[in-house]
Amino acid sequence: MSVNKKLYEGKAKVIYSTEDPDILLADFKDDATAFNAQKKGTITGKGVINCIISAKLFAELEKVGVKTHYINSVSPNQMLVRAVKIVPLEVVVRNIAAGSLCQQTGLALGTVLKVPLVDFYYKKDELGDPLLTSDRITLLELATPEQVEAITHLALQINQFLIGFFRQCDITLVDFKLEFGMDSQQQILLADEISPDTCRLWDISTQDDSNRRVLDKDRFRKDLGNVEDAYQEVLQRVLKAVENQQ
Ligand code: TMP
Ligand code: ASP
User: Fold this and answer.
1) Measured by CB atoms within 10 angstroms of the end CB, which terminus of the chain is less buried, N or C?
2) What SS3 class is residue 185?
3) Average pLDDT, stretch 11-33?
4) Residue 25's domain is classified under what CATH number?
């Protein structure tokens, strides 16, 4: 598959066209940003690690019936994906209170939510990705009410799968962000990535609330150190869990 031109460069990935208009190439970068790119850095090896973790998780999700944009991996940090029109929503599923939920509601860090919470944010850097309501999604025509319902259902299904998968990795899935896209047949596909950049992942056996348990991008966001080690640790645990499932 020959790669043509760069179509889009985001904060963590570059998207290239291929000779097939229905297929794109996603190239995962080592660049790391936080707080809407106010903080910038590099996490060495992140592109490869996030590409492999995302590929494995997309493949596992396909096995349980979730349609994703993932086709196959073509190099350690590159995957072929189905071309989709990204729905401009960042869909966050939360199982445990952390991050902006604590800041905006006063809930204590680590509060276990009785039912998972699905939050929608407007994917628009210029506005700082604000929290949306259903009515605002309709007002701005970001998605139809039917699409929002289908996306919510998919996000909760993906959450149930990922909770179990990460438990096998001795990891608690605190929260994560998903993006969805529409393919040429108007099917909703899970897109973007699922990685330590887009999830909060806590080591199960580190019970205290110290930052030692943090195995995700919060190590970069909060300058906790050992960022590369945490990403590498998640990769090794994910690979082992996938191997054990076969
Ligand atoms: P938040 O607590 O900052 O709202 O983040 C919730 C989850 O979404 C967390 O797992 C990190 C992920 N996330 C992204 O993937 N991209 C983002 O731009 C933000 C703000 C959060
Ligand atoms: N996506 C965020 C940024 O805009 C990074 C994050 O906090 O995950 O830089």
Assistant:
1) C
2) coil
3) 97
4) 3.30.200.20
